[in-house]
Amino acid sequence: MDGGRQRSQSEDLKDHDLTRARIRMAHLLEVETGYRSGSRYWARPGEPRPEYDPERTTLTERRRAKVAELKGMDHREAKQLGLEWISERTLERMAAKYAEHGLMGLADGRWTPPLRGRRAITEEVAEAIRAVHAECPHRSKVSMRTKERLIHQYVRETFGPEVKVPHYTTLAKVWKEWFGSGGARQRYVRSAAAVETGTAIVVISRPGQVVALDTTPLPVKVLDDVFGVPISVHLTLALDAFSHSLVAFRLTPVSDSSVEVAMVLRDVLRPLPMRPDWGEEMEWPYPGVPAALVAEFAGHRVAGLPFFAPETVTTDHGSVYKNHHVVSVARTLGSELLPARMMRPTDKAACERAFAGIQSLLLEMLLGYRGVDVADRGADPEGDAVWTLAEMEHLLATWIVSVWQNRRLDQYAPAWDPGGRHSPNTLFAAAAARDGISLEIPEPDQYHAAHRRAPPPETAAQAHRPADRSPHPRDTAHPRRSGRPHPGRLERPLPTHRPVTAAPDENLLVGRLDHPRDPALLPSVPRRSRLRRPGPQRGLDEGPRRSPTGTQ
């Protein structure tokens, strides 16, 4: 520990930096012991070399020989190792650091991330920084210079002028380390601070324990499969929080609906079939369960994408996720819906990062890419669109199976092996080897169950309606499918309320009253009556309509 800070470990080094540190250690050990391994019991062929034989040379002679050897090395190779400027004094310092800190004593400080914590930040200064941070959300947004003055003012008024405050640069770095860059809007910061966060921590230990769902507009214009015109589509992803596998996705023209979300949930349970242009390298790769056995079980060749029954599904508070239809489908599939906390996008940070990864690794290179901002958009992204909706879906499926599932997870490495090389496929394979794989494929009738919508709950007025009356259009599951003609304008009946003494209806949890999307199923109502706002009817003797200014 150094001033309360934890030193960097070898796991903090990247692969090439770790290799350079080990090469430095081999040169140093050859100087100190005569052997690159550090012991004569693990001597390499030809060791010890004559100029490094510990029985014939002194330590000073070996250091001089190593300096001459490194100076004769190729300049680019020596620069890559950080040994282009070597001397006997440098070898002495390297030996002292290796004796104190081991391998990390030989690593360049620029190879590791900066250590957090600063000696100049005393308890008084830390209290002032936190007090100013608690005050800033209630003010209008201010610059870091103003925050520095407020910190000085708090320290002077609370602890006196004898307490020393660090320089502005140190305060700015500490503020960013503790609270982030501060780029959020003040209104959003206050709204997020007003929501109480839970104290429970979910430890994810197996695939399917938590699956995150989210939808975003696809930043690429695609062509409609029927008319060939450029359209905007939405991308819905299902990401497994344990292995970070993109277990299901769906492209929806214009905007998504609850049916699309239900089909994504269903796709999580089903194995992805192999496509004609996919090679053997994209087939089921997980050990323990042969691909032939999975193909026989599923009835077709299965691609290398995990499938399982999700235990918990995490979504945001969008209207497409918060409806009775999605709740009913989740119950049918045996899953639980767990909405994320309000104003807490970090609850689905992995899913948001997956969208950014797909955009930077794939979508930005496609024709028709329209960027994330109107100001950064190209001259004519609609004219550049060449991918049809079906081709875009096939491209995404191919990229997910072949690229995303085999990419190394750097910041999302598992806690039990933070320095290992892991991908979504290897994490799922490790979990399969530990816990096994549940080969459970849903029945075909679940496709219709995902589309079926439960009837709405019966209201009190409907329950007390006389039996000899003809059924009202609102009594059916879809009110506009009854076929009864409406008058010249759409009338909205007053809502009825359930009495307080009525027993709770179980259908309230699963039923949904929704209108069909097919225009042919709508009643024959004149177009103008649909666009007219409901309001009082004007008589013929009321005279001409006047504007607010008094003119006709």
Description:
By secondary structure, the protein is α/β, with parallel strands linked by helices. The chain has three domains: 97 residues, no CATH class; 71 residues, no CATH class; 241 residues, Nucleotidyltransferase, domain 5 (2-Layer Sandwich), CATH 3.30.420.10. Helices cover 34% and strands 7% of the residues. The chain contains 18 helices and seven strands. The strands form two sheets. It has a five-stranded mixed β-sheet with strand order 5-4-1-6-7, with helices on both faces. α11 links the parallel β6 and β7. The protein is globular, with a radius of gyration of 34 Å. The N and C termini lie far apart (83 Å).
Helix-strand layout with pairing:
Blueprint: H1 15-33, H2 59-71, H3 75-81, H4 88-101, H5 123-135, H6 144-158, H7 168-179, H8 186-194, E1 210-217, E2 222-223, E3 230-231, E4 233-240, E5 246-253, H9 258-269, H10 291-298, E6 312-315, H11 324-333, E7 336-339, H12 349-361, H13 381-384, H14 389-402, H15 424-435, H16 446-451, H17 460-463, H18 527-531
Helix pairs in contact: 1-2, 5-6, 9-11
GO molecular function: nucleic acid binding
Domain Integrase catalytic: 203-432
Protein name: Integrase catalytic domain-containing protein
